[in-house]
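FORM 7B: Structural annotation worksheet

SECTION A. Query
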Amino acid sequence: METPGAGIVEIAREFLLAYRRSREISALHRAGDLCFEDVRGWVGDDESSTLYRLKERCHGLFRETNGRRTTMAREALFDLTVGAVFHEAMRFRENLYQREVYGPRVGKLKGASPAEAGLIREFKRIVAGASVRLDEALLETEALLEQTRRQFHGLLLAHREDGRVSRFLVENAGYVVLAFEGGVDRLFEEMYEDAASGHARAARSYLDSGYFREGARALVEARVRGGDREPWLRLADYAAAMQAYLEGDYPGAVASLSAWLDRHPPPEEAAYAALALDAMAHLGQLADGDSGEGGAADPERVVERLRSVAAAPA
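SECTION B. Predicted structure
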């Protein structure tokens, strides 16, 4: 079953894609270079459309199901606004279709009777009005999209405790900067006490998911922005240990685990110790005296200390 956190990340992904494509559509239209094929992946009635996917993900996560309210006012308003953006964009699409497809066909028609001539004039009037309606629909779509962007900002703030959200923003920094001035760092400053804390939260999400190399990189970004805070140094040791294990550097893994333990991991890191214990059980026989750089880490002693941390009450 999809968790709310995973659903929020999926909505964030679709929103940023839709926001970027909406800006591209606007620019193409104003430059006179937009054709109907350009809008197919932007808005439509199936999963190939970014706005359709965004609308459906919001409906699935934020609307009432089985008579139970599953959302708050903020999420409900976001869902409604996304729906309005979608329908206004569909209006834009239909008017573009009239202008591009019907327009040339109508222009070639010639009535054989007064009644046919009158009908053709009516078609021409409709097609001529499509251009006006096209501009109106785009302006309304842009206005609604800006409102949606502001609500999306509030949605991110409401879910800032979820490390998957921070991690997503780090991974999609190029899209984030299109929607939010100052990019990820500015957004993290608004979500947390500072940008460094946002990168650190993303790092924990990586470590929780077993992405140790990525977690180490996120910790580097946190330390670049916020200095060598003790929790980040400790987690960096843990990330280095588990990455060393994955790469087959068993002495290096033991040495880094020892360094992590020397920094006294708190009870909330007991799950990390349990995972490290499982890794240690698969290390096999280490060569005598081969305990990594410095030769200070005793595997048996490390195992004892890991057991103690893993058993600590959360």
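SECTION C. Observations
Residues 4-159 form one domain. The CA atoms of residues 11 and 57 lie 6 Å apart.

SECTION D. Sign-off
Analyst initials: ____
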